[in-house]
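Bench log. Compound arrived from synthesis this morning; before running ITC I wanted a structural hypothesis for how cobalt (II) ion sits in the protein. Inputs:
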Amino acid sequence: MSSNSGDFLTDYQLEGEELKIFTYPAPVLKKKAVPVEKFDDELRSLIKNMLFTMYQAPGIGLAAPQVGKSLRLFVMDIDFDREEVTRADGEVDYRLTNFNPRVFINPVFKNKQGEILYEEGCLSVPGIYEEVKRAQNITVEYQDMYGHRKSLDADGLLSVCLQHENDHLDGIVFLERLSLLKRNFLTKKFMKAKKKVK
Ligand code: QAP
Ligand code: CO
């Protein structure tokens, strides 16, 4: 496993607590998050629970503000697979396999180049998807869960996802990256759907 988060996370599926995901327009999603300073067991427990919550959804990225913690940290996995399994009662179910959990703490972007259009979604705006324009290539400097400094060059979906999650740390939801017209339309659509399920 080419994971950057250490082996202790390989069993996150069995262990972990499902955290509440805050949905738009929760105030915590609009706040600028503060840097992580303590790389302790409490932080690693939060990371584990965030990964568990992300895989439960399932999602490919989850930032700390989305679970109500205003910290500069997010988790991501853009390459897990879905395996079809037949349950005892004959029903077909899905199980996630080949995990590649990633953790980014206090990320800073260095080079942004090119342009890419990618259809994004967000666990804090469920049911809404739209194309967003982002940088094609980026370099991100960050810390891992032990506080070690790392650097990563990214392009394509990895680059898009890093930028989407980093926006959450600055209080920005992907709807705010759209034209005013699309943003207003999709925000109304989301608020309407949200009212219905309440
Ligand atoms: C951000 O988003 C992302 O609406 C991560 O009903 C997405 O994991 C970056 C999700 C796409 C780049 C491209 C959304 C799950 C998951 C929903 C997610 C939903 C269930 C979104
Ligand atoms: Co999001």
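What the model suggests: Residues 122-124, 164, 168 surround cobalt (II) ion (ligand 2) (CB under 6 Å). The CA atoms of residues 39 and 145 lie 6 Å apart.
ITC booked for Thursday regardless.
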